[in-house]
């Protein structure tokens, strides 16, 4: 009898905590317009690491661009205030690591990730308010020389270091 009462009490406590955390999570997020974030890639075929060459990346340029776009939209919507709009134009992407032609698996080279090859992202951005007034704009050359020291990076994504750099920039820029 005591055990079943305890289990019911703990179950109710857990459900209550989950419900409260869900409400808190959604109440802290501003309501962002679906069109509040615009992402472009200028001359993507000239990017340092968006190559379709057979000895190039294991990830296709379109797939990499889609992951970058998704990261910008998701992170920006968390930080934009109501009515604000953000436009980000990527001008170059140099992914973490580098391909060494001497190291190959079949016909594809292997990307070697070490401190010597940090992720680098060049972009321009414009942040405007609901009236179209420019609040912030500029050109950024992002680089994360300590990218291998990050313990909080998910290991399940091929662009984890690059996306982490991008999300860090968005969090600091949109404060």
TrEMBL record:
Keywords attached to this entry: Signal
The keyword Signal appears for this protein: yes
Domain of life where this protein originates: Bacteria
Organism: Opitutus terrae (strain DSM 11246 / JCM 15787 / PB90-1)
Name the UniProt record assigns to this protein: DUF3016 domain-containing protein
Cited PROSITE patterns: PROKAR_LIPOPROTEIN (PS51257)
Leader sequence segment: 1-19
């Amino acid at each position: 009898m005591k055990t079943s009462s305890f289990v019911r009490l703990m179950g109710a406590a857990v459900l209550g905590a989950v419900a409260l955390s869900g409400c808190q999570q959604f109440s802290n997020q501003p309501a962002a317009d679906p069109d509040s974030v615009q992402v472009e890639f200028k001359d993507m075929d000239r990017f340092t690491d968006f190559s379709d060459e057979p000895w190039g990346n294991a990830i296709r340029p379109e797939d990499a661009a889609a992951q970058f776009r998704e990261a910008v939209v998701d992170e920006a919507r968390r930080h934009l205030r109501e009515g604000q709009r953000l436009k980000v134009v990527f001008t170059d992407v140099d992914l973490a690591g580098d391909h060494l032609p001497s190291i190959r698996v079949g016909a594809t080279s292997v990307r070697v990730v070490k401190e010597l090859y940090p992720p680098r992202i060049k972009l321009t951005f414009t942040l405007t308010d609901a009236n179209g007034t420019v609040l912030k704009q500029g050109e950024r050359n992002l680089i994360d020389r300590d990218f291998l020291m990050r313990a909080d990076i998910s290991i399940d994504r091929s662009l984890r270091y690059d996306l982490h750099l991008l999300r860090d920039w968005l969090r600091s820029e949109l404060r």
